[in-house]
Amino acid sequence: MFGRVTDPSGAPVADAAVQLTNIDTGERFPAKTAGSGDYTFPLVKPGNYEIRAGHDGFKAFVRQRIKLEVNQSATLDIALQLGAVSETITVRDEAPLLETATADRGGVIDEQTIKAMPLNGRNPFMLSMLVSGVNYNGSLAYMRPFDNGATADFGINGGANRSNEFLMDGVPNNTQAGGNNIAYVPPVDSVQEFKIQTNSYDAQYGKTAGGVVNVVLKSGSNRFHGSVYEFARRNAWDANSFQNNARGAPKDGHFQDQYGVQLDGPVMLPKLYEGRNRTFSLFNYEGFREATSQPLVLSVPALEMRDGDFTRLRDSRNRAVSIYDPSTTFQNPALQNRWDRLPFPDNKIPASRINPIARKLVDFFPAPNTATAGADYS
What we know:
The chain has 378 residues and is mainly β. The chain has four domains: 2-91, Sandwich (Immunoglobulin-like), CATH 2.60.40; 105-217, TonB-dependent receptor, plug domain (Ferric Hydroxamate Uptake Protein, Chain A, domain 1, Beta Complex); 225-292, no CATH class; 303-362, no CATH class. The chain is 5% helix and 35% strand. A hairpin with a 5-residue loop joins strand 2 (17-22) and strand 3. 20% of the residues are buried.
C-alpha cells in the first residue's frame, strides 16, 4: 500500500507521520513521508485496516474500513486540512481503493466465499472456477486435498493445462511430481483468501505460461478462536449407484469422514510474554478416511477339490478335465519321443497322496460363494 500526503494546495507534505493499523490484530505499522510526500507500507498482509496521518499545522486524518486483499497494490492519497493537530477528520465510507500500480487482471476469492460455498472434498482450489477465464480440465474425483493429482489441471485465459504458478503466502507452491502440480493443498479453514491473476504483467512473477494462483493463510488475531468439524458420509445416507440399480444390486458399502480441529489467537506465555497486537499463531489439523467396497471375483478351488475330488471339473464346453498321476509317467512305446501319464481313477487324488501341510494351506483360500456363467467348472 502506498500514496502521497499533500496540503490543501496539492503540495507534498514531507515528514508527515502515517500509521497503518490492522483492526483484527492491533498491529501498527508506522511510516514517514519522504520529501515528495510519498509513503509506502510494503508486504502488508490482507485484512481490515485503519490509516492515520498527521503533521504540525494540519488536522489529523483518519480513514477507517480499509480492506486490503491479497496481492493488492492499493493507492491512497491523503489531503491534509489546515488546523490544529488536536482536530481530526475521520473518513468512514469512501469508494474502494484503486489499484493503479499494476495492470494485472484477475479475481479474489475472499474468506466469506470460501466459508459459504460447497466444496467437493473441501478443496479450496475448486473455487478458482468462479473467476472469469479459468477452466478446470481434470477429473473432479481427484479434487481432494490430499490427492492433488488433478488439482493443478487448470487452463487460465487460454493457457496450456498445468502451466500455472501456485504461491502460498508468496512462496512457490509448485512441484514437478506429476507435471507442474500443486505441492500442498491447505485445509479450507486455514485459508484467508486467494487471488487468481489471469494476466500478469509484473516482472516479479515468472515460471508460468498461464496464470498465478496466490493463496494467503490465516495467521490468528487478538481473539482466541477454535473450531471442531466433521463431514461424514455413510452407506445408509447415500443413494444407490446407477450401475447397481440397473442390475438390481444393493448399495455398495461406503463410509467417509473428513474431520479436523482449528485453534488460533495471540501467543500468550503467562508471566513471560504478552503476544496481543504482536505475535499470533494458528493450528489446523485435518484428517480424512474413506472406505468403499470393491467386489472382486476370483476363481478358488471348490470344497471337494481341496480333498482331491475333481469329478465335477469341466471346461467351458462341459467336457470332463482329467487329472493325471505324475507317478505313472512312461514313454509311449508307439511314439518314442512322447511321454504319457495315466489319469487318477475316477478323477480323484487319494488322500494318502496329498501333503498334509499343503492340505492345511489350501484352507486359507476363501470358500466359493458364487457361480459364474461360462466358468471352466461349476
